[in-house]
Write a structure and sequence with these properties.
By secondary structure, this protein is an alpha/beta fold. It has two domains: 1-16 and 176-218, no CATH class; 17-167, Alpha/beta knot, CATH 3.40.1280. It has eight helices and seven strands. Helix 3 (61-64) links the parallel strand 2 and strand 3 (72-76). Helix 1 packs antiparallel against helix 7 and helix 7 crosses helix 8 (191-200).
């Protein structure tokens, strides 16, 4: 195992933000999904959520640059179930949707547990998403176009969240629970072994200081 690779994975996990999420409501174009997951990885989002009947995302691996395997994705059957699940975990859900009561996205405090709800292009956030979200937010537009590409809009909002969180020191020390940290580290280091363990219903082996699995002697 490369010491550099192990150190880079640990450094990345040390900055993951378990209470900053993205919820994709009907976003289905592969290039948009891939770009959004890439942004999630870039700002330290540990987990994305998606409303998908197929329970999978049709992402372009080359567009995501591998980010899809480093950002956990949880699927939900309906928008209502997804939002209620996030709110039950203590997250405030902000729907990127312009309305008379919408708030400038820069006026939101993203240092508290937050989830950004993004809708599909053309249709935007669903009615359920607008009604159940804690607030609607918008990106001010100064030109002739009324909205941005969904992946661009997601990036703008998430990097504002990153700016606020970095200023608040939320990237300065690990925030993932120890069990999740070690489990994720093993899955990143040894995805095939991890998959085999899950299939067999076995726990992951411990790893040594170089990141290699420690095999028990029977």
């Amino acid at each position: 195992m490369s010491a550099h690779r192990l150190a880079r994975f640990r450094e990345t996990l040390n900055r993951r933000q378990p209470d900053l999420r993205v919820l994709l409501d009907g976003v289905h174009k592969p290039h948009n999904l891939s770009a959004i997951l890439r942004t999630c990885d870039a700002v330290g989002v540990a987990k994305a959520h998606a409303v998908s009947a197929a329970m999978q995302l049709p992402i372009h691996r080359h567009c995501a640059s591998g980010a899809g395997q480093y950002v956990e994705t949880q699927f939900h059957s309906t928008t209502a179930e997804a939002i209620e699940s996030l709110q039950a975990q203590g997250l405030r859900v902000y729907a990127a949707h312009y309305s008379a009561s919408a708030i400038d996205f820069r006026d939101i405090d993203y240092t508290v547990p937050s989830a950004v709800l993004m809708g599909a292009e053309l249709w935007g956030v669903s009615t359920a998403g607008e009604q159940l979200a804690d607030a609607c937010i918008y990106i001010p537009m100064m030109g002739l176009v009324e909205s941005l590409n969904v992946s661009v809009a997601t990036a703008i909002i998430l990097f504002e969240a990153q700016r606020q969180r970095q200023a608040a020191g939320l990237y300065d020390s690990p925030r993932l629970e120890a069990e999740r940290y070690e489990r994720t580290l093993f899955e990143w280091l040894h995805p095939r072994i991890a998959a085999d363990c899950r299939e067999r219903g076995q726990p992951y082996p411990a790893i040594d200081d170089e990141g290699d699995p420690i095999r028990s002697i029977s």
